[in-house]
Specification:
Elements: H1 11-25, H2 34-65, H3 71-95, H4 99-114, E1 124-126, E2 134-137
Antiparallel strand pairs: 1-2
């Protein structure tokens, strides 16, 4: 059974749709500098901070009168957090950074070096034939697709 508590969106799916939408309806990602993209991220993070401030006020009020945090405040928090991630993904696209791999590698480094835990995310190791061809998942060891000419490609399909 698949655990769907956290949804099924992947960074790769976000990147593909995000770039396509930006370039179809707004402008090419490369038209904005890294500074432009970071300004957009910071603006959305500021809006998220304003929502968090209001949620904190609601929590304080709830403690006084027993009311729960309003659903609209929680929905606004989700919307603003999503805006931050969307702009951050476009910033990473502009810089040539694979956000999925960067997050997994950083998470794993902190787990391993600072926390001394084996809690880790899968990271795609790259095929020796090219930087964009993954070879295997470093956590599960399951193979990822190779480029056709790769000498590391399995002779038979993975089971």
């Amino acid at each position: 059974m698949t655990d769907t508590r956290y949804g099924t969106l992947t960074f790769d799916a976000l990147r593909e749709a995000n770039v396509r939408r930006c370039e179809t309806h707004y402008h090419p990602v490369a038209d904005w500098s890294l500074t432009d993209w970071m300004t957009a991220v910071a603006g959305e993070a500021g809006e998220l901070a304003g929502v968090i401030k209001n949620v904190r006020r609601a929590e304080t009020e709830r403690n006084r009168n027993g009311h729960a945090i309003p659903e609209h405040a929680l929905a606004a928090l989700g919307d603003e957090a999503a805006d931050v991630v969307i702009y951050l993904d476009l910033l990473c696209e502009r810089a040539g950074v694979n956000l999925s791999d960067a997050v997994a590698r950083k998470f794993n480094r902190v787990s391993r070096e600072r926390l001394r835990t084996d809690i880790a995310l899968p990271v795609r190791a790259r095929c020796i034939c090219g930087p964009s061809e993954p070879s295997y998942d470093t956590v599960t060891g399951r193979p990822w697709p190779h480029c056709p000419s790769c000498p590391m490609a399995p002779k038979e399909p993975p089971r």
